[in-house]
């Protein structure tokens, strides 16, 4: 197997990222959301996994926040993350998550939230956000809405707060 190259997405990747997400999710909603978020977000982290010049995976982190008593803490939301169907279960998703979290840690991001598979994301340190006193802005199973403090204790002052993704997510929620 050829080695995987995890790198920042470039504008030349946009069409391939769109196609990959549409295929991975078997519908265009997530792919369309990515296109919207690129335009709507001032800052984001978008990484691709490439093998032999072919994109096999993609991950996107966009601004998210918690707010309590007039104080806001900005973090990131992980969504979506996709691996091409023919390459799933090959470790590409894990490589993308690990690379993205490393970049966010390096850049001082205090926390990351994800609404995802409860058997997958705990391997990266995510726990149900409710254990940190944080709730999801949407109705979601407790075990599926998770958070990871990249700065230990960052979410403690926000116990009882609702975590909110970028408003563009409301169009697909």
Instruction: State the helicity in percent bands.
Output: 10-25%
Stretches where pLDDT is under 50 for at least 5 consecutive residues are none
CATH class group: Alpha Beta
- Number of helical segments with 4 or more residues: 3
Order of helices and strands: EHHEEEHEEEEE
**How would the global form be characterised?**
globular
CATH topology: Aminopeptidase
The average pLDDT value, as a whole number, equals 94
Give the N-to-C terminal Cα separation.
37 Å
- Corresponding CATH superfamily: Gcn5-related N-acetyltransferase (GNAT)
**Oligomeric state as shown:** single chain
The second-level CATH architecture is 3-Layer(aba) Sandwich
The SS-based structural class is alpha+beta
Please indicate the percent range of residues in DSSP E strands (runs of 2 or more): 25-35%
Structure explained in plain terms:
With 173 residues, this protein is an alpha+beta fold. It has one domain (5-171): 3-Layer(aba) Sandwich (Aminopeptidase). It is built from 3 helices and 9 strands, in the order βααβββαβββββ. It has helices at 14-25, 29-40, 92-106, and strands spanning 5-8, 45-51, 54-68, 71-83, 111-115, 127-128, 135-136, 145-149, 162-165. Strands 1, 2, 3, 4, 5, 6, 7, 8 and 9 form a 9-stranded mixed sheet that branches. A hairpin with a 2-residue loop joins strand 3 (54-68) and strand 4. Helix 1 (14-25) runs antiparallel to helix 2 (29-40). The radius of gyration is 16 Å and the shape is globular.
């Amino acid at each position: 197997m050829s080695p995987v190259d995890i790198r920042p997405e470039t504008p030349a990747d946009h069409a391939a990222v769109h196609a990959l997400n549409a295929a991975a999710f078997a519908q265009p909603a997530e792919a369309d959301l990515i296109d919207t978020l690129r335009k709507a977000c001032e800052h984001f982290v978008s990484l691709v996994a490439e093998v032999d010049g072919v994109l096999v995976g993609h991950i996107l982190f966009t601004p998210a926040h918690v707010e309590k008593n007039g104080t806001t803490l900005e973090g990131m939301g992980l969504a979506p993350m996709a691996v091409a169907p023919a390459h799933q279960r090959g470790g590409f998703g894990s490589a993308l998550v690990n690379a993205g979290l490393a970049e966010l840690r390096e850049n001082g991001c205090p926390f990351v939230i994800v609404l995802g598979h409860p058997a997958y994301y705990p391997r990266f340190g995510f726990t149900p956000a409710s254990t940190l006193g944080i709730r999801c802005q949407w109705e979601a199973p407790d075990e599926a809405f998770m958070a990871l403090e990249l700065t230990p204790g960052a979410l403690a002052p926000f116990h009882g707060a609702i975590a909110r993704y970028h408003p563009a997510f409301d169009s697909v929620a």
